Amino acid sequence: MRFGVLGPLAVWTPDGDAVVVPEARVRALLARLLVAPGRVVSADRLVDDLWGNALPANPAGALQTLVSRLRRAIGTGLVVHRPPGYLLDVPPEAVDSGRFAELARRAPDPAALGEALGLWRGEAFAGFADEPFARAAAAALEEQRLTVWEDYAEARLRLGEHAALADDLRELVDEHPLRERLRAAHLAALHGAGRTTEALDGYRRLRRLLRDELGLEPGAELAALHERMLRGEVPARAEPVVPLPTPANALIGRDEAVAEVRALLSSHRLVTLTGPGGVGKTRLALEVARDGGEACLVEFAGLPRESEVDDLVDTIAAALGSQNGGERLAEVLRGRRLLLVLDNCEHVVEPLAALLSGVLRAPGVRVLATSREPIGVSGERLWEVLPLDEAGAVRLFAARAAAVSPGFVVSEDNADAVARICRRVDGIPLAIELAAARVRVLGPVELAERLDDRFALLTGGPRDAPARQRTLRAMLDWSWELLTGAEQAVLRRLSIFADGCSLDAAEALCSGDGVRPSEVLDLLARLVDRSLVVVTHTADGPRYGLLETVSAYGERQFGAGERARLAHAHAAHFTAFAEEAARHLCGPDQQRWLRRLDAETGNLRRALADPRFASRLARSLAWYWFLRGRLTEARRATVDPAWQAGFRLLTGEPVDGGTLPGLRDNLAEPRERAMAGWFLGYAATRFGELTDGEALIRTALAEFEDLGDNWGVAAALSVRAVHRYVRGDLAGSAADAERSRALFGETGDRWGRVQANAALGRLAEIAGDYRAAAAWHREGAELAEELALWPEVSMRWSELGRIALLEGDHDAADALHERARAVAVDHADPAGREFAEVGLALSARRRGRFAEAEALLRPWLDWNRRFEADNGAALILAELGFAAEQRGDAEAALDLHGQGLGAARRTGDPRAVALALEGLAGARVALGQPGRARGLLGAAARLRASAGAPLPPGERGDVDRITAAIGRRFTDHRP
């Protein structure tokens, strides 16, 4: 179906036959939907627009009746219900107003503008133009019609159609006597047709009218036209502009870019689109130029590099259709509203810069240039064309792949491969299109696997494309050949880096063989200008990097032996960097050096591949890996036996506890030995035998104290605080935690403060001071987030979830545990995920969702049983036992609590033992043994009291429930 609003409301079949829409109010509904085709209009708005104050008794029913009648008239599939109302589901081009707008954008093409004006059959929304819902739309369309008439008139003036145009405009000018642009076209047409006297009379009438009606004088352009008429200047027939080429394919993924560049051109007369080769600068420029108004594409790619200003002038004049070359360029440009699209300017920037100052003297001329580097003249506004984001890149790949392999779609089977292809070619449209052309013979999975040899693979560009766009190598050859020898050397050497580098690294590794370190910055700046190097600004200074494709190209430019020498220098540089960083990771500069190490992750991994530096580098990075939670990477790379064993424990691999103390003894340097002992003690405390952890930490503490190492003392005390509260020595634990926090404060180590806060928070929780506990954990979470210590962040959010759970706020507890789980999943942290999901299970069980709790707990029970430490298993067994008891399976509960009691006793934690005894009491009362249950509860209470940790209020729920059940059982069995 097609619809018409540029005149009386009309509907036509695809064959052009008129469709009758009966009833005035049904036609009004259609008109209202055609005000914004494809957009939802709420039911309330439709009722107001169609009935106003004269509402029917049942407005909703009346509207549905109208919708049904409209559907019968035009088809049920076109009027769609979509909350909160209805829409007319048709594309813009199905409505004559949409077709009109599309043709209007083709200005200054007179044929397109004439076709656009030919669509009008009367006033817009005739019959409804006075209705409130159509008034604004009708007025906007009328304004657009007049603008198109003005564009059309100026296009015909350039073609010399003065006489015919003068007659065509007479009636329109009489209807709109104050539109100066329309009147100027009419006067110019009269003058060009030899009717100058009429034109001068018309100017005088306009002048009087403007004075009388508005108190204004004619504008500058009209005044200038008046002067030319008085002098008798005959307007020359303008040379027709060669129309912009029509691209074969739709532009994908650049809607925002088109809008932004058009906005820039409205306020700047010279805009240069920069970006790497193949990123789509030309295609974007052509789309921008279709915004309306006269535009001309000038292609400079065919000019030699030694071109001079006159060569450029002749090229522009030829593109404008001038028959007299550049001699008349100034005259051709004078008085015209014209957008010059100057394409591929990078190899002629010097003569172009000299030319542009003259071109831009013509007030109606704007320039949109494409170049791999700025032109470098006053008033230039740069706009960088970035590679496509992943969504846009995948859409482009899918569209181009479907063109060569009909039926191709991105599916669950190939989505990962397609995304990987788009990432590896850096989202560059030309590279994506070259890759998509190979789908027919390789398929996306095989194509993704072969991209290491991208320059041999991506060669299938269209035969009608310029040679530089037919292969990936040719695209980069064009840029490479424009560089000086020094620029080529720096670009080639930058490919040795992974994920970019800092300025000092570039100066160290990109200099040599005629390039001085002091010259590297200027060379980098020139490569950035040429869109070959990407610069990002960070808190620690600029970083310089290459797109993967440019890096792969640079790798191929190394001379014999050059890459091997540079790789060795690279590994040496980053080993020295890591050793320097390690000295700053336990103090006030911790955050900055963590950030710097993060930025160099790719380079550090590349350096680790050099066996001559791997051991030194791994030793320097061990603490960094630990802080960042990159434990698996650390375990693979670390060769030191002590640290290797610690990382194995932390990643869930069992280690013979009896061997741990001897591992540190092999280290000769005292602080290294104490640090390794501390690390082993920390790991053993979390996932090994508590007694091993206690022994190692005790030794490390003594060694740090002998060395006068306050940081080491604080670290050892933070772990000993854990040992002490597990053993029930709450006062000793508090003393250790407080002293640890004070010493970490003196050293400026925020990681350490997180550790001390964790112990203090747990102690406050045990004491039932939930407000203080939450404060300690929240401060720890904030510190950890500042440092991006994601395992700590996850644990602290889970601890806050536990506090919310103890306070009875299950919704808050679930939200906090979910937040913790998300962080742990994002950073592949199984310990953090376990702690979060156990917290979710605690909440589910307390809410009576026993199956959900058990489903969360069961996998983690198996995970915890891999370790010598029984703390996690003891808690999970207790929770599984309570869940079984509450859902009525007392025998299972008794078995689970029995296992839990064994695990709790092995931990040495009196609170864990008390919890298991309380669980056994619940199972016994469920089995009808209230006397035995009461004895178990009494034992648990005595154990908690002896440990100085009575049951706090938030943990009384199960004990109170079991106590009440015991009372009922005794009542039920009373004689």
From TrEMBL:
Belongs to the AfsR/DnrI/RedD regulatory family. InterPro entries: BTAD, HTH_77, OmpR/PhoB-type_DNA-bd, P-loop_NTPase, Sig_transdc_resp-reg_C-effctor, TPR-like_helical_dom_sf, WH-like_DNA-bd_sf. One of its GO terms (molecular function) is DNA binding. Residues 1-90 form the OmpR/PhoB-type domain. Residues 1-90 bind DNA. It comes from the Bacteria. One of its GO terms (biological process) is regulation of DNA-templated transcription. It comes from Amycolatopsis albispora. This is ATPase. Keywords: DNA-binding.
